[in-house]
Amino acid sequence: EQLSQGDTPTRRKILINGKAPGRDIRTDPRKKRIAQLSQNMHFLADMTVEEFLRMHAKSRNRNSDTVEQVIEIANTLTGESIQPGHQLTILSGGQSRALMAADIAVISDSPIVLIDEIENAGIKKQEALKLLAAEGKIVLVVTHDPVLALMTKRRIVMRNGGVRQVITTSTGEMNVCSELVKLDNYMMTLRDTIRQGGLVEQAVVV
After folding, report:
1. Cα(155)–Cα(173) distance, rounded to whole angstroms?
2. What is the pTM of this model?
């Protein structure tokens, strides 16, 4: 995310097309090539959802109608409705991350998205991952969740700060993923039912 140039504890350097990135790419938020979505994102700005999105859209030279699009998409990722007039500071963790996922997909032009343990973010993780990937972005997911890991074409095994192995998802793993997705969707249904005050009195075989 930092496009490090020997200035981190590992002293590693990140090259883009074999060349060191310019200082402006590393420091100018408008030219940032990597967007991040993590489990610990919260808003501190004292403004409404609509005001924030319009400001961000303007800074990225996007049309103002993208604001409604972002909110509509965000509401497909969270069970708690987000309204244009909501203050950013009162949004729950799940609402905040759903809004940021939609914002990254629609407004941000960063070609690379780093997602940190989105399974703990309180949003519909499968939909969020598909949304970002559908926008043609390179999506890197840090996860221990088998559903997310097996949804990807490749996964990188890290150890002691380095890449130890790159695994291509096999046909057998894809089949396992299909079964896990069914179970995960069932859990999401139960979560929504409980959130809305419903009763869960009968077990369902998935």
Report:
1. 12
2. 0.75
